[in-house]
Amino acid sequence: MNVRLKPEKYLKYLYLPNLFATKRTGEILSVNPTVISQRVDATEVSVSVYDYTAESLEEKKSDKVESVFHYKDTPSISWINIDGIRKSDVEAACTNYGIHPLIIEDILSVDQRPKMDEVEGVLYCLLNMLYFNEEKKTVETEQISMVLGSNFVISFQEDPSRDVFDPIRHRLKIPKSQLRQRTADYLLYSMIDLVVDSYFLIMERLGEQIEALEEEVVRKSNKRSLARINQLRKELIVLKRNIAPVRDLVAGIIRSESELLDDRTTKYFKDVYDHIIQAFDLSENYRDVMMSVQDLYLSNVNLRLNEVMKVMTIVTCLLAPATVIGGIFGMNFDIIPYAHHSFGFYFAVGLMFAIPVVMLYIFKKRGWF
Is the CA virtual torsion 283, 286, 287, 288 positive or negative? Predict the structure, then answer.
């Protein structure tokens, strides 16, 4: 059987920054709100529209933002999802729907903290969808912006190849679904709820990684284990940094007195708030577990060091009598007992072996090893 080796998979570990993922630290901690990040316009933009009432549903897909402008004046509820952020398209869509320039600036920004704003008759929510990269074992983020109007919800996504909204698309195709019977704020709730629920899937994958790492540290830990501990702690930082602000986001929606929010929908947002609190507590628990795993690793290292030092100490103690006896018989005196005796050599060697044996017996009896 021919097995093709991939040396590049292992050669990267010869470079210490790759082993301990120091580049990942720069990615996580490089956020600077005083510096305006430059967003690169997407090469492709995909626009999907679900225009619905309790009785009807119109589904439309296009690659031009201008094709959704007329939905502003329809009495039905419209969900406009724009995949791929392009400055000209975002400005055109927001201008058509009367969205404030400050919100446009937030949509076009990168590495924003999740937040909620009410500006001139629209409610704006920004949060991150999380994905777990199985190959790199890292948590990846995708910024999503959602704008709630009187009869529309516009969502802006960065990556058209993935999102968590397929259950909403499926429910919209069911005529008697609750989503079709409610107002636009219920659609916003459904979208935020799916994003929050996806956090638990990411934490489940991280939990599996932490559990496997803990077993590895207990069985046999090495420098690679320390590198994995370091990496997982960074991913937990990413997780917590994206989960914690969503708690304030949902709380702000619950406290809001906006006319866009129906009182009947508030209880659903309270349910989302309970979920995000649970997710935040779980991320804190994972952080505590990682601290415990790190302490366990350090304890194992110290334990192995103590074992080595104990062996070295015992060997030194066992050799000490032979050193003393050899030193005595090697002194430059004319008269040394048994120095010139025919059995003197055997007597000295016998003592060198007998005394360590007695010492071993005493050490063993006292439980020193």
Answer: positive
Secondary element (H or E) of residue 189: helix 184-219
119 touches 102 (CB < 8 A): yes
Q: 188: closest CA among 290, 104, 61, 78?
A: 78
d(CA 88, CA 144): 18
pLDDT (tens digit, 9 = 90+) per residue, 249-271?
A: 999 999 988 889 988 888 899 99
In the chain, the domains with their CATH numbers are: 15-29+38-300 (3.30.460.20), 330-365 (no CATH)
* DSSP annotation of 86: -
Residue that the structure tokens 């031009």 belong to: 64
The sign one gets for the Cα dihedral 32, 35, 36, 37 is negative
Counting Cα atoms < 13 Å in the Cβ hemisphere of 279 gives: 29
What is the biggest distance separating any 2 CA atoms in the chain, rounded to whole angstroms? 120
Query: Are the CB atoms for 110 and 39 separated by under 8 Å?
Result: yes
Residue 159, CA distances (Å) to 93, 114, 134 in order: 18, 18, 18
Q: Say if residue 247 is exposed, middle or buried (CB neighbours under 10 Å; 0-12, 13-18, 19+).
A: middle
CA–CA distance, 249 with 52 (Å, rounded to integer): 27
Question: How do 115-119 and 77-83 pair as beta strands?
Answer: unpaired
Token pair of 152, please?
């529309």
Give SS3 for 59. Answer: strand
Per-residue confidence at 345, pLDDT binned at 50, 70, 90? confident
Q: Measured between alpha carbons, how far apart are the two ends of the chain, in Å?
A: 48
19: three-class secondary structure by DSSP = helix
Phi, psi of 164 (to 5 degrees): -115, 15
Q: Give the H/E segment covering residue 52.
A: strand 46-52
* Residue 286 near residue 202 (C-beta atoms within 8 A): no
Residues with Cβ within 8 Å of residue 133, at least 6 apart in sequence? 139, 140
Rounded distance between C-alpha atoms, residue 307 and residue 304, angstroms: 5
pLDDT tens-digit series, residues 11-64 = 454 444 555 556 667 666 666 555 556 677 888 889 999 999 989 999 999 888
